[in-house]
Design goal:
The chain is of the alpha/beta class and about 210 residues long. Helices cover about 35% and strands about 20% of the residues. The chain has one domain: Rossmann fold, CATH 3.40.50.
């Protein structure tokens, strides 16, 4: 039974409703199904016209809906997944392998499939709950979520004329990227941080 009162459903609802409910019968590509909470959110709450979900595990029975197609596959299998896609998408949702390297790869593989004004959504981009002595205190998740956040910022740094980005810090966090035109996505660009500069070192001494 899908729990609409779960923290994941609440996070999706709080962060995405205002934007996604403005799209009439959206076409959605979902990476990562697990217990089907996000699947239920997109099908029943957002009322997707078509939802294609991809997972390496067999999640084909988590929900029944005529507008749902499940593909048992890795999200990196672009050739297979593209064979099921017709036209551009309104929403892409990513909740599979939570490493910065994987998130970056999936963004560059599928961002061109989004319509102008479509949304690319990435789960697990906030690390505070997983830091040492925090409520969840998990080293691996802390580091991966922090690295994912930084990688998304570097992608945005190179593509500020192509996208708008919003972050949620509710629970494990979430990122919403709005595609504002159809220009080619450029490689990420390093952000030069002056935190460890001599100038900042002097500032901390004299302040």
């Amino acid at each position: 039974m899908i729990k609409k009162k779960s923290s994941i459903f609440k996070k999706l609802k709080n962060f995405l409703d205002n934007d996604l409910k403005k799209i009439k019968k959206p076409k959605i590509l979902e990476f990562g199904v697990r217990d089907g909470i996000s699947t239920y959110y997109f099908l029943k709450h957002i009322k997707a016209k078509k939802l294609i979900s991809v997972d390496i595990n067999d999640c084909g029975k988590v929900i029944k809906d005529k507008n749902w197609l499940f593909i048992k596959s890795s999200d990196e299998n672009k050739k297979l997944i593209n064979s099921y896609l017709t036209g551009k998408l309104d929403v892409i949702y990513l909740d599979t392998v939570h490493t910065a390297k994987h998130v970056e790869k999936i963004i560059y593989l599928y961002f061109p499939k989004l319509k102008k004004n479509g949304y690319f959504i990435i789960d697990d981009t906030f690390w505070l709950p997983y830091c040492k002595n925090q409520v969840l205190d998990k080293f691996w998740i802390e580091i991966n979520n922090r690295e994912t956040f930084n990688t998304i910022c570097e992608i945005y740094n190179a593509n500020q004329n192509i996208m708008k980005i919003t972050f949620s810090i509710e629970t494990s966090g979430m990122c919403k990227i709005k595609k504002i035109n159809n220009k080619k996505l450029m490689p990420k660009k390093k952000i030069f941080n002056r935190q460890y500069s001599l100038k900042n070192f002097i500032r901390t001494i004299i302040r």
